[in-house]
Specification:
Layout: H1 2-17, H2 26-48, E1 68-70, E2 75-85, E3 93-99, E4 102-108, E5 113-117, E6 123-125, E7 128-132, E8 137-146, E9 151-167, E10 182-185, E11 191-203, E12 219-229, E13 232-244, E14 248-260, E15 264-271, E16 279-287
Parallel strand pairs: 2-9
Antiparallel strand pairs: 1-4, 2-3, 4-7, 5-6, 5-8, 8-9, 9-16, 10-15, 11-14, 11-16, 12-13, 12-15
Helix pairs in contact: 1-2
Length: 292
């Protein structure tokens, strides 16, 4: 390898010495020759060891990576819980808990201030932000990176669905003069959506067990899906109406492709025709994000 270097060096020096003017272009040519020798030496060292190349880096280049945003998860589920607290006067207090899914959004390759539009009327600034949505739905998150050189945009689609749980006060016979209605509001938003869930009534121990009753006094349950408009019932669908001899009864329900418009609602009504029934109802359901 050293002999090869000497041959190249001698050849280059020979070219310099045969130039016509040693005082005019000598300096410029020497710079070119030294630069060429450096490149040759670099190639030769690379061929033998390869370690020398690792110490060099390109100077003065800039990144061409595009501005973008990302999230660890683009799907989330909000949780809604309502508990009726019995006060003994048929006017139960409703205690509501809401747990909203928290989304984390991060910017990549930003060059300035980041402004976030979450698609629900709320906004924020920063390289990394978090946000929760009050209502289920499909949302477009838009981030704008602004600097003295340029403005860049990036978007991300997120989906928010919901699960609900309602623990109602004890049911009362519909035939009783002071009976109250057991209503579960499924709180549907506007749009095209679907529901699935389960209604459970459990014997609370205040009356004779359902398993021990005679055929004329069996426990009874009626489950009705009701559609409302401005608070008034416009349609009813009875999905269960029968007796049972167990201390727990489960009734599943499913509603597909329901188009909810402004002022419309959806609820479940629970009834019993048995005076001796004392059951604690609970209702669990899931709801898809509405399509507007």
């Amino acid at each position: 390898m050293i002999d090869s270097v000497h041959k190249i060096f001698n050849y280059k020096i020979h070219v310099i010495e045969t130039d016509v003017d040693k005082y005019g272009y000598y300096t410029k040519i020497m710079k070119i020759i030294i630069s060429t020798l450096s490149l040759v030496l670099l190639v030769l060292f690379t061929a033998t060891g390869g370690a020398l190349v690792a110490t060099f880096s390109t100077v003065g280049t800039s990144s061409n990576q595009q501005f973008s945003i990302e999230a660890p998860a683009v799907y989330g589920v909000n949780e809604y819980t309502l508990i009726e607290v019995d006060e003994g006067d048929n006017d139960e207090e409703e205690v509501i808990f809401a747990k909203l899914h928290e989304f984390i959004f991060e910017s990549q390759n930003s060059n300035g201030i980041i402004f976030w539009d979450f698609g629900d009327g709320n906004s924020a600034t920063g390289q990394e932000v978090s946000h929760t949505y009050d209502d289920p739905g499909y949302y477009t998150v838009t981030a704008t990176s602004t600097s003295s050189k340029k403005v860049e945009l990036s978007t991300l689609e997120v989906t928010v669905e919901m699960i609900g749980y309602v623990e109602s006060d004890n049911m009362e016979c519909a035939c009783a003069p002071t009976a109250k209605s057991t209503i579960v509001d499924l709180i549907p938003p506007q749009g095209l959506l679907s529901f699935e869930g389960i209604v459970t009534v459990e014997h609370d121990g205040s009356s004779e067990s359902c398993t021990l009753r005679n055929p004329l006094q069996e426990c009874h349950l009626r489950v009705i899906i009701e559609y409302t408009k401005d608070g008034a019932i416009i349609n009813q669908n009875i999905i269960f109406d029968g007796t049972f001899r167990t201390n727990e009864k489960n009734v599943q329900f499913e509603i597909s492709d329901l188009n909810v418009e402004e002022g419309e609602g959806l609820q479940i009504r629970l009834e019993t025709d048995q005076l001796r029934d004392w059951h604690k109802p609970s209702t669990t359901w899931s709801m898809t994000a509405p399509i507007q």
